[in-house]
Amino acid sequence: MSLLKDKVALITGAGRGIGKAIAMRFASEGCDIAFTDIALNDVVMETEKELKAYGVRVKAYVSNAAVYDDAQQTVSAVLADFGHIDILVNNAGITRDGALKRMSEQDWDAVINVNLKSVFNFTKAIQPVMWRQGGGSVINMSSVVGVSGNADQCNYAASKAGIIGFTKSAAKEMGVRNIRHNAIAPGFIHTAMTDALPEQVRKAWENQIPLRRSGEPEDVANVALFLASDLSAYVTGQVIHCCGGMNC
Ligand code: NAI
After folding, report:
1. N or C end of the chain, less CB within 10 A?
2. pTM flag (> 0.90)
3. Is the pLDDT of residue 248 over 80?
4. Beta partners for 9?
């Protein structure tokens, strides 16, 4: 069974990590993939090649998710190339961690703009498309720290908490048109973002997780597949934790 046959997904920041895993999982279910990243480098081109091996339509777009006009232009370009957009995954995100006393205004603005404003940018651009189509699924990448907070991550946790408020509001506003909005709150997932942390910090996180391991990008991709597909047709406005029980 192909869960996403004849659907088109637009995924931001999918050159690597969780976004790439989502793109691969969707493609394996017959979904055509439009994905963005900040630059078209070798890593992004390799991802495009790996996705094409699934025999679906694939195109990478350069787009800074933090920039309003980029989102508008990207959605127009994807529509022109693919004809419709059924699924939006707002995945692009960054960290600029540090204690609040040392956090600069630039570190605050960068994280809020890339993580939170991007969700506004792309959802705003896609809303008229999904409204016309009479349906769609929007999946926003939050984090467990957006629910529970985390020392040294005031900017990041605020951006991820903001995503939850946005998701619930948009779900209430657009449910009437069968446009579903849900968020995923991943815990500690093994990607380049977390590889950047010191070994003892990684180990300390893993010891607190009931399932005693960090998650893999594929674990998050499977939750995204559920939210993207008609299996979740009656699910909207929810935050699904994918964290090995870390936040239970
Ligand atoms: P990553 O750093 O491996 O990948 C992020 C991707 O987004 C990269 O390809 C990067 O080039 C792209 N990107 C960065 N800024 C961008 C921009 N302005 N416009 C477009 N693309 C941009 O990160 P990872 O771990 O795959 O994270 C993906 C999402 O999952 C992020 O929103 C992150 O906050 C979230 N997340 C990750 C967790 C983890 O443990 N890795 C836990 C909870 C949430």
Report:
1. N
2. yes
3. no
4. 33, 87
**3-state class of 167 per DSSP?**
helix
Task: For ligand 1, say whether the CB of 153 is within 6 Å of any of its atoms.
Answer: no
Terminal-residue alpha carbon distance, the chain: 32
The CATH label, of 1.25.60.10, 3.30.1360.120, 3.50.50.60, 3.40.50.720, for the domain at 8-189+219-241 is 3.40.50.720
Per the structure block, which two tokens stand in for 177?
């048109």
Check whether 113 has a pLDDT greater than 90.
Answer: yes
Q: And the tokens for 219? A: 């674990």
Question: So what's the pLDDT on residue 196?
Answer: 85
Q: Taking the domains of the chain in order of start, what are their residue ranges? A: 8-189+219-241
Is the distance from the beta carbon of residue 159 to the nearest atom of ligand 1 less than 6 Å?
A: no
Between the CA of residue 60 and those of 8, 35, 137, 196, what are the distances in Å? Answer: 13, 5, 20, 26
Of 35, 39, 38, 47, residue with least CA distance to 10:
35
pLDDT digits (tens, 9 = 90+) for 169-206: 999 999 999 999 999 999 999 998 888 889 998 898 89
- Tokens representing residue 200 in the block: 């003892």
Specify the residue with its C-alpha closest to ligand 1, atom 12.
Answer: 13
Mean pLDDT (whole number) for 111-136:
98
